[in-house]
Design goal:
With 450 residues, the protein is an alpha/beta fold. It has 9 helices and 33 strands.
Length: 450
C-alpha cells in the first residue's frame, strides 16, 4: 500500500506534468478578466467616465458587451478547452482514488477552467423578434450574450442572469434653451414631460405595482450589464432594481415611481453610472444587514470591502437621494438636487443620508434638498466614520451639512448657486457663467459630466 506522503508526491507530479502548459496559460488569461474594487475605482474615478452610451447616440455598434469579458479564441481555443477539461477529469479520478476526495472539493481552484468546456460564441438575441418576453430571452441566453430589446412597454418582473448584457432603446439628452424656443410643439411637450432632463422612453419595463422590477441576485458580477431602460412601478416597499450579493453594471437607465430606485444589499459592489433617478421614495438605498466590521467600516480598506460606486447620476425629486446604512460607497460626479418632491413633502428629506457607514463624496452638486428643520444636503449620524467630502458644491439646502460622526469636510468644497440651464424642464446642465465649471481637482466640472 502506498503511504500518504508518497501519494501526495505522485499526485503532485501528475498535476505538474499534465496541466503545466494548459492550466497556467488558461489561468493567466482568466486573471485578465477579473477586476477588483481597486481596479474599478481607477476605471470609473474622477479621471474618466465609462458608459454604454456615447454623446447621446443610440448606435448599436457603440454598445460594447459588459467590460472585462472577452470571447472566442482570444480566451482559449476550442482544442485547448477540450484538452484542459479532459486533463481535469483524469486528474480528478486519480485524486478521488488516492484520497477519496470529490472533484468539486479538491479541484475548486480549477472550476473556472471547467467552464471553458461549455463555452459558446456570444450571440445577439432580439426581443420581441426571437422571444416575445424579456425574461424568456434571458432564460435562453448564455454567458456573454447580448439581448437587445426593441421599443415598447413590457409588463414584467425580470430576474437577471450572470454574464448577460440587457440593452434597451432609451436615449437621454438635454436640450439647450434655444432648442426649446425653435419648435413650439416640441417645447410644449418638453414642458409637460415629468422626466429629468429630456428622456425618450423607448423601452419601458413596468412592474405593474408588484415585486422588484429587475433583480440581480446570487453573485452576479461586473460581467453583467443593464442599460437604456425606463424601469418603473415596483411593488410597495420594493425596488426598480434590486441588487443582492451582486455587482452588475447599471448604465443609462431611468428609474422612476418605485419605492426604491435602486436597492443594494448584502455583499454587493455594483457600479451605478449615468442614470436618471427621480420620483422614487428613495433614489438609491444601500443597506448591509450584516454586523458592522472593521473591514467594511474603515474606508482605508476600501479595496477589500463591499463598495458601491455611484457616478455621474442625476438624482432628483426623491424624498432621499442616497441612503447608506452599514455600508460603504464612492459617490462621485452626481447631481443630487431637489430631493424633497419639489417642496410638497414636509417630512425629513436629504440629499445624502449616512448611518453607520463610510463614504467618499467627491465632485457632486448637492443643492435644494429638504425644507424641514431636520433636512440636510448631507447628514451623517454619530456611528458614521471615514466620511470624506471634497470638491462638492453644497448649497441651498435647509441645512447644507450635518455630521455627528467622524467626517472630514475639506476646504475645497463650494457653496453657491450652480446656475442650472433650466430647472423648469429639469435641465441640470450648467450655464456658461456657472462658477462650478472646471472646479474639480482634475479640472472637470462639478456634477454630472454628460
Amino acid at each position: 500500500m502506498i503511504k500518504p506522503n508518497k501519494k501526495i508526491i505522485i499526485l503532485a507530479s501528475i498535476l505538474f506534468l499534465l496541466i503545466l502548459s494548459g492550466v497556467v496559460f488558461a489561468f493567466q488569461k482568466n486573471d485578465n478578466l477579473e477586476f477588483n474594487n481597486k481596479d474599478l475605482l481607477k476605471e470609473f474615478g474622477s479621471d474618466g467616465i465609462r458608459s454604454v452610451q456615447v454623446n447621446g447616440k443610440n448606435d448599436d455598434d457603440e454598445i460594447p458587451p459588459a467590460p472585462f469579458v472577452k470571447g472566442g479564441d482570444d480566451i482559449i481555443t476550442k482544442n485547448q478547452k477540450q484538452g484542459t477539461a479532459q486533463k481535469i477529469d483524469f486528474i480528478a479520478k486519480i485524486g478521488k482514488g488516492l484520497f477519496g476526495i470529490e472533484k468539486k472539493i479538491f479541484f475548486r481552484p480549477l472550476n473556472k477552467l471547467v467552464e471553458f468546456q461549455n463555452y459558446k460564441e456570444p450571440k445577439t438575441i432580439n426581443v420581441p423578434e426571437d422571444y416575445s418576453e424579456i425574461q424568456t430571452a434571458i432564460d435562453n441566453a448564455d454567458f456573454g450574450d447580448t439581448i437587445k430589446i426593441a421599443s415598447g412597454e413590457y409588463m414584467e418582473n425580470i430576474i437577471m442572469k450572470e454574464g448577460i448584457n440587457l440593452i434597451g432603446s432609451n436615449v437621454l439628452y438635454s436640450p439647450e434653451i434655444d432648442e426649446l424656443s425653435e419648435d413650439a410643439e416640441k417645447s410644449e411637450n418638453i414642458l409637460k414631460e415629468e422626466s429629468a432632463q429630456t428622456i425618450i422612453d423607448e423601452t419601458i419595463i413596468n412592474g405593474g405595482g408588484f415585486g422588484n422590477v429587475v433583480s440581480f441576485k446570487n453573485g452576479i458580477t461586473n460581467k453583467t450589464k443593464l442599460a437604456r431602460f425606463t424601469i418603473k412601478n415596483s411593488g410597495e416597499n420594493l425596488s426598480g432594481i434590486l441588487i443582492e450579493n451582486s455587482s452588475p453594471l447599471i448604465n443609462d437607465n431611468v428609474l422612476k415611481n418605485n419605492e426604491y430606485g435602486v436597492y443594494i444589499k448584502e455583499d454587493s459592489s455594483p457600479i451605478i453610472q449615468k442614470n436618471i433617478i427621480y420620483l422614487n421614495n428613495k433614489g438609491i438605498q444601500i443597506y448591509n444587514f450584516e454586523e458592522e466590521t472593521e473591514a467594511k467600516a474603515a474606508f482605508a480598506n476600501i479595496a477589500f470591502a463591499s463598495v458601491s460606486i455611484i457616478i455621474d447620476n442625476l438624482i432628483t425629486d426623491n424624498k432621499i437621494g442616497i441612503d447608506l446604512h452599514n455600508s460603504s460607497a464612492i459617490i462621485n460626479h452626481n447631481t443630487i438636487s431637489y430631493n424633497n418632491h419639489y417642496k410638497t413633502y414636509l417630512g425629513p428629506t436629504f440629499g445624502i443620508y449616512i448611518a453607520k457607514s463610510s463614504a467618499e463624496i467627491t465632485n457632486n452638486i448637492i443643492t435644494d434638498n429638504g425644507i424641514c428643520d431636520l433636512c440636510a444636503g448631507i447628514n451623517a449620524d454619530e456611528k458614521s466614520k471615514d466620511v470624506v467630502i471634497s470638491y462638492n458644491n453644497i448649497w441651498g439646502n435647509k441645512n447644507n451639512f450635518v455630521c455627528f460622526g467622524e467626517c472630514v469636510l475639506e476646504d475645497n468644497n463650494l457653496s453657491e448657486d450652480p446656475k442650472f440651464i433650466n430647472c423648469i424642464t429639469s435641465n441640470f446642465k450648467l450655464k456658461e457663467e456657472s462658477g462650478l465649471i472646471g472646479m474639480c481637482e482634475n479640472g472637470s466640472d462639478v456634477g454630472v459630466r454628460w
